[in-house]
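Handout, section B. The chain below has 131 residues.
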Amino acid sequence: MTANTSAPATALLGHRQEWTDGDAGRVRCRFSATPSFCNPLGVVQGGMLMAMLELAMKDAVRAARGAAVPGRLLDLQASFLRSAAPGELLCEAAVTRAGRRTAFVSAELRGPDEAVLATATAVLALDADPA
């Protein structure tokens, strides 16, 4: 499975999937945090980190469903544990529970030293595939 590189946010964040396990609803992605993502303190702005977490969680739902459309975000909760510097960031996401209409997903975003920078959970509405 490859990322939808035609989506502007995907390209902006330097999103690349490393591996996907559709049976388990798990993915590992890398993102490129550029200096333009930084706030005046020189660390990556939290909204950019949330966008990375959201993209990875939607990838996990897409992998689990085998569908092009991952669903609509209903709720997103994030915790920022450490500051993120510009560079390569790793994110792992997994579907924790999926029903007919909603999916619950979690993710961890790590820095180059493997330290957890941020965690997130989300609920997505599972829309029918357009076909």
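Note. Residues 1-5 have pLDDT under 50 and may be disordered. Compare this with the example in section A.
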